[in-house]
């Protein structure tokens, strides 16, 4: 099998090595789209120490032709041209160009290539859980940069859970006043002001990423009970299988799940749900609002179905598309068009399959996040000091790569799949260094599955492990502290 000799991840849809000399970056200049040019200058300076001038050499342009987010890149000894169908496509072409930059003796060069590239799926996401451990603005911005460099275009923020509520809401000020100060293991908590949240959205937009905020309900709501005790049921401690036991009215710093529930059927709870999602909708320009709906083990099936119906209807009425974890598919009243996020295993249970299919049957689409393939919080190796193992044990890089979205949920075809998302839950993740240690290099596998064609000569584990290994020097210069997994032949 041939292995592509270029460290490109995700694999482009169409790539051909060209004859001729490479393009030398020393003394090179860039012209064209100012935003893309500024971004390229920053990345090239970081990677090589070279400053690109202004003028001919590297030409960047948007021409409006081709599929959304697509680009064309041509490099030869005399120059480089990147043309995007839109601003996002041009941005992704810049990311590809930076991956192509290589040492040739004492020079920095770009090999002669021709690339025509576009994404397989429209939704290519990562999730960051800021509830189990709070992560500040600088960390979130750094994760956005890391994800965007791999052509991922959605940041799903898990903004509430049993351990804390992380977004200021003026309609419900007690949520941050009373329920934001703690995190797992007694770590300090925190929250985003509305200005902070707007700053995250603006920074993500500058990297062509859409923010999908999540308030998880009706379970995972112990923190809500700290702020508004009249809205919360007593903890269902009998469902706890690990971690400490929750106590009503006291902050929860353990990692147990499933024990909490809102008090469903009360007008006060309905008003709360309407308030928080109405304010979230005003703050969020993107089309999706996520209401959770997972692991509601302390909620009766009847109450759960009632809640899912009312919450999804409330979000739809706000002009947004509801998103929910796949368990919400069990509710007969789920609002039509709701997007389901599947987090079962690559070989799912019958119930998970049935619930996931229900979204499609109601006119919605699916986001694939199989836990034993793309949950970035799983240990990459058995001896990893960070991460968990409940999703079929440690998740190696080859397992993160070796799955196909259309073969997970029976009866769901490619047209029904909105995309792929790699969640990072943060029970063991307190710092950016921790994020890097678990996300990389497996985030690159998720990016390739979401972007690249399903098949092809180089769409293989052998090619991927070689290509991702070639990104080691780039990731190092960008400050990404990735683990050098033995599965990969790393370039040094």
TrEMBL record:
Domain Beta-hexosaminidase bacterial type N-terminal: from-to ranges: 8-117
Reactions that this protein is recorded to catalyse: Hydrolysis of terminal non-reducing N-acetyl-D-hexosamine residues in N-acetyl-beta-D-hexosaminides
Alphabetized SUPFAM superfamilies for the sequence: (Trans)glycosidases, beta-N-acetylhexosaminidase-like domain
Top-level taxon of the source organism: Bacteria
Protein's recorded name: beta-N-acetylhexosaminidase
E.C. number: 3.2.1.52
Keywords of the record: Glycosidase, Hydrolase
One matching Pfam family: Glyco_hydro_20b
Protein family per UniProt: Belongs to the glycosyl hydrolase 20 family.
């Amino acid at each position: 099998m041939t292995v592509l000799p270029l460290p490109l991840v995700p694999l482009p849809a169409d790539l051909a090595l060209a004859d001729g000399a490479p393009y030398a970056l020393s003394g090179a200049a860039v012209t064209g789209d100012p935003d893309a040019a500024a971004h390229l200058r920053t990345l090239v300076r970081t990677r090589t120490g070279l400053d690109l001038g202004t003028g001919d050499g590297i030409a960047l342009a948007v021409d409006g032709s081709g599929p959304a987010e697509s680009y064309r890149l041509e490099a030869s000894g005399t120059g480089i041209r990147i043309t995007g169908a839109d601003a996002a496509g041009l941005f992704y072409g810049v990311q590809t160009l930076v991956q192509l930059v290589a040492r040739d003796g004492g020079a920095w060069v770009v090999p002669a290539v021709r690339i025509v590239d576009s994404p397989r799926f429209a939704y290519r996401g990562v999730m960051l859980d800021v509830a189990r451990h709070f992560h500040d603005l600088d960390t979130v911005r750094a994760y956005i940069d890391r994800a965007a460099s791999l052509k991922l275009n959605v940041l799903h923020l898990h903004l509430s859970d049993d351990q804390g509520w992380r977004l200021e809401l003026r309609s419900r000020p007690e949520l941050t006043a009373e329920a934001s100060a703690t995190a797992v293991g007694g770590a300090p908590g925190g929250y985003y002001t509305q200005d902070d949240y707007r700053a995250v959205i603006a920074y993500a937009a500058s990297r062509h990423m859409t923010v999908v905020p999540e308030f998880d309900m009706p379970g995972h709501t112990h923190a809500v009970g700290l702020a508004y005790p009249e809205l919360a049921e007593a903890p269902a401690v009998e469902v706890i299988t690990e971690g400490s036991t929750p106590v009503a009215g006291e902050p929860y710093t353990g990692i147990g799940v499933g024990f909490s529930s809102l008090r469903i059927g009360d007008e006060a709870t309905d008003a709360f749900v309407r308030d928080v999602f109405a304010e979230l909708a005003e703050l969020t320009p993107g089309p999706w609002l996520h209401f959770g709906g997972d692991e509601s083990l302390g909620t009766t099936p009847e109450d759960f179905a009632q809640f899912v119906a009312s919450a999804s209807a409330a979000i739809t009425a706000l002009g947004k598309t509801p998103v929910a974890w796949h368990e919400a598919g069990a509710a007969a009243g789920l609002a039509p068009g709701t997007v389901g996020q599947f987090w079962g295993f690559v070989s799912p249970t019958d119930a998970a399959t049935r619930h996931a299919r229900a979204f499609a049957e109601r006119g919605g689409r699916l986001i694939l996040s199989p836990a034993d393939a793309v949950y970035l919080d799983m240990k990459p190796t058995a001896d990893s000091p960070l991460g968990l193992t409940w999703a079929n044990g440690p998740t190696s890089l080859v397992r993160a790569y070796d799955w196909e979205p259309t073969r997970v949920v029976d009866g769901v075809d490619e047209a029904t799949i909105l995309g792929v998302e790699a969640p990072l839950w943060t029970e063991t993740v307190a710092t950016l260094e921790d994020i890097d240690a678990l996300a990389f290099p497996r985030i690159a596998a998720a990016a390739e599955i979401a972007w690249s064609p399903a098949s092809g000569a180089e769409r293989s584990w052998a090619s991927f492990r070689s290509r991702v290994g070639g990104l080691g020097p780039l990731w190092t210069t960008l400050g990404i502290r990735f683990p050098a997994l033995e599965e990969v032949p790393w370039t040094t």
